[in-house]
């Protein structure tokens, strides 16, 4: 029996993840070949800096200064893009690869969030796979879990902890009772946060991933612009403390659902009750919950980033391609995806955590509670804590189930008064 | 454009799960067709009793008294077997379907544990898929998660809570401080345990599932006979109580690993430290942990049984088949699976929980501790509880890391003495 021909990879990007893919294909070569039915070999690579030390031998691979040239090479059957960036070289390479009718594998959530549908369309026209398991939740096979594992279900909701940097920061703030800025600085020092952490801490990275998950889960067109996004910079150690007193932990959660024909997509720090699986997700881990009408609640947890987990997801895609797996990138042809209007965040109906800091003078609590009453929001529990360093009083409340518009109106009325010493903070509560 | 022809199903078995598959294909018909690229329709069915009320309209399906006849029907492209039983009609149908070169989908872990390799071989020869997502952990896509999602990894270990009945019983014993027999009787009344619960509570059902998972995880031949199996009937409320005092919960865990070229497979009540994801798995849920050399620890949790979750897994397999997905049942051709000798359970090296009940007389504790010392097993913690109803004293110990043979020798020495009032109980500890 002739051994089947190998799947030959053109690899663009040799940062942590790119080097990880090379290391994985070296370390697990025999095992990958057994599972894929053929060998998977890198034949050509491209990166910005050829000389950089990466701990891998690049001499055995052909080199291209211009990543786009990988797509055209005769010794490349499939391109892996680990360059990053929504546009620029990554997008040029994606287009060139699909135009050359070769499979394309990427970990680039920003590019998919912005150009995923156009690329999926190009992949369909070329009849080649476009795969991106590594783009969401790192090593956790959640794209496959939703696209295939839960495929028989109408999903009511998909949500999860999609950014390991934010989860690392929030859980360290919780365990060590430290402030946001202090933990962020330490996370940067330890390599858990980027030098420019904007995409992570402002929730943009999680929003990219959520937009991809929502499309897969609900059969809708990717709508990154429709994700209402709020980061974690406003969360204080006091919030975490009071949430704990009330039986909750604070996590940055990306959440999507279809409600009344509209697509709700939101990235927000949320309160999660102890006992909910997401409340136990610690440090840089990621986790995703999908709720289906037959399967019930599925929960996936694992490492959301880093060399090994991301390389694991990239090579899982390559094994699928080597096995001949194909099918549309977003589970159905792009033409079949529904264009769904975004939901109005004000239409949400849920319990909320509200935190205000106010001046320490008589009647302030009456002002706050009157603002809530006038907006029709009732209070389930309230904690008032004495004067802090800034001379302010910290008031944390959990509302009964209320409409988003009503809560916003109450916060607006509070802010219009004279007693607040800082902008009020609202966090939704996720129920068990 | 012509719409593609539907995938026509012959469905054998119309119990809870079979009826669930019919209901799912009715309820989610349009969505399943969008994701599968074609409609999936039941054309013929077979069950023991045609007249039984199932809440579904069978009049639209052809009927076969003999399930085997489904395989030969011209209007059946694919057979789904939900009859159950390791041999008998299920096996006859599997063989007939594969001989007819049609895809075969089953939830039958007993049949796979005993005949999975022969069936996989027949499927390979016929070049048709043999799929069984529903056979392990119900609705959780763990077969897919390991076969495909974690495919790039050498797995060090796979383990999990694979039997919902046992987990339901153990967690109720824990929360309500009740005895095993009492909770079992109540579970039977409520439908969480079968009238004959032997397969569940003795660990056999979990062992079937573990043997399948181990083969997929390690690329080894299925070896059900090699699973060392112990059920939960010996676990007492006192064990659960003392484990909690020491920071553990008790769960029935199926665990498999490759150690020194040998395959360790074990189903055993285990102590799990609080903080380990398996410790939080409550009631009838199932969960699986897979540890890969690149991805690290993956954790999957969901409903392990019941109409909806099992139907979800069966139809996920059908969608894969409708999409043209194929590939070997156990991730690689049967000929490539390694025949690995079973590990000697005595070679395990781990901490253990030991519980003995002894007569209430001076010197008994010295006897017990001498037996451990003589076997070279040292004690990390010990709890002795006063005289119980039977006049015995309850002693619970956690050992330091020790070899299985040494622990067994100590238990043997204790049992040979005159002070034990019941057989000693050993449970391994799973580390965080």
UniProtKB/TrEMBL annotation, chains A, B:
- Kindly list the positions annotated as binding NADP(+): 12-19
Q: Which InterPro entries match?
A: ACT-like_dom_sf (IPR045865), ACT_dom (IPR002912), Asp/hSer_DH_NAD-bd (IPR005106), HDH (IPR016204), HDH_cat (IPR001342), HDH_CS (IPR019811), NAD(P)-bd_dom_sf (IPR036291)
Keywords assigned: Amino-acid biosynthesis, Methionine biosynthesis, NADP, Oxidoreductase, Threonine biosynthesis
Q: Where is the active site?
A: 209 (proton donor)
Its lineage opens with: Bacteria, Pseudomonadati, Pseudomonadota, Alphaproteobacteria, Sphingomonadales
Q: Which GO terms describe its molecular function?
A: homoserine dehydrogenase activity; NADP binding
Q: What's the protein called, per UniProt?
A: Homoserine dehydrogenase
Residue ranges constituting the ACT domain according to the UniProt record: 353-432
E.C. designation(s):
1.1.1.3
Q: Which CDD domains match?
A: ACT_HSDH-Hom (cd04881)
Q: Does the keyword Amino-acid biosynthesis apply?
A: yes
GO annotation, biological process: methionine biosynthetic process; threonine biosynthetic process
Q: Which residues bind L-homoserine?
A: 194
Pathway(s) annotated for this protein in UniProt:
Amino-acid biosynthesis; L-threonine biosynthesis; L-threonine from L-aspartate: step 3/5; Amino-acid biosynthesis; L-methionine biosynthesis via de novo pathway; L-homoserine from L-aspartate: step 3/3
* EC top class, as a word: oxidoreductase
Family according to the record: Belongs to the homoserine dehydrogenase family.
Q: Does the keyword NADP apply?
A: yes
Positions of NADPH binding: 109
Short name of any one Pfam family annotated for the protein: ACT
Superkingdom of the source species: Bacteria
């Amino acid at each position: 029996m002739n051994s089947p021909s190998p799947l030959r990879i053109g690899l663009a990007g040799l940062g942590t993840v790119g080097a990880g893919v090379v290391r994985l294909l070296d370390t697990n070569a025999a095992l990958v070949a057994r599972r894929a039915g053929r060998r998977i070999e890198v034949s050509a690579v491209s990166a910005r800096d050829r000389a950089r030390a990466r701990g891998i031998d690049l001499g055995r691979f052909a080199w291209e200064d211009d990543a786009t040239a990988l797509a055209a090479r005769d010794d490349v059957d499939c391109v892996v893009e680990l360059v990053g960036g929504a546009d620029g070289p990554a997008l040029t390479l994606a287009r060139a690869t699909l135009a050359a009718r070769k499979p394309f594998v990427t970990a680039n959530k920003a590019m998919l969030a912005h150009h995923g549908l156009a690329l999926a369309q190009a992949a369909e026209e070329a009849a080649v796979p476009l795969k991106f398991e590594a783009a969401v939740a790192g090593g956790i096979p959640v794209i496959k879990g939703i696209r295939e594992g839960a495929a028989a279900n109408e999903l009511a909701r998909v949500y999860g902890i999609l950014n390991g940097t934010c989860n690392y920061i929030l859980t360290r703030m919780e365990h060590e009772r430290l402030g946001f800025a202090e933990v962020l600085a330490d996370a940067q020092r330890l390599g858990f946060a980027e030098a420019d952490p904007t995409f992570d801490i402002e929730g943009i990275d999680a929003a990219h991933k959520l937009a991809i998950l929502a499309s897969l889960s609900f059969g809708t067109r990717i709508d990154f612009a429709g994700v209402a996004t709020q980061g974690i910079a406003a969360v204080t150690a006091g919030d975490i403390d009071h949430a704990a007193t009330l039986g909750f932990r604070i996590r940055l959660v990306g959440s999507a659902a279809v409600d009344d024909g509209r697509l709700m997509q939101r990235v927000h720090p949320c309160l999660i009750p102890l006992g909910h699986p997401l409340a136990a997700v610690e440090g840089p881990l990621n986790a995703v919950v999908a709720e289906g009408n037959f399967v019930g609640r599925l929960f996936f947890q694992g490492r959301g980033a880093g060399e090994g987990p991301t390389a694991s997801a990239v090579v899982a895609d390559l094994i699928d391609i080597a096995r001949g797996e194909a099918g549309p990138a977003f589970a159905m042809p792009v033409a079949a995806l529904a264009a769904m209007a975004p939901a109005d965040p004000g239409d949400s109906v849920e319990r909320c955590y509200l935190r205000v800091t106010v001046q320490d003078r008589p009647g302030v609590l009456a002002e706050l509670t009157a603002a809530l009453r006038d907006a029709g929001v009732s209070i389930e529990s309230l904690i008032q804590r004495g004067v802090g360093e800034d001379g302010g009083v910290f008031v944390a409340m959990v509302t009964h189930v209320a409409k988003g518009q009503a809560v916003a109106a109450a916060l607006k009325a509070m802010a219009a008064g004279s007693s607040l010493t800082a902008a009020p903070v609202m966090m939704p509560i996720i129920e068990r």
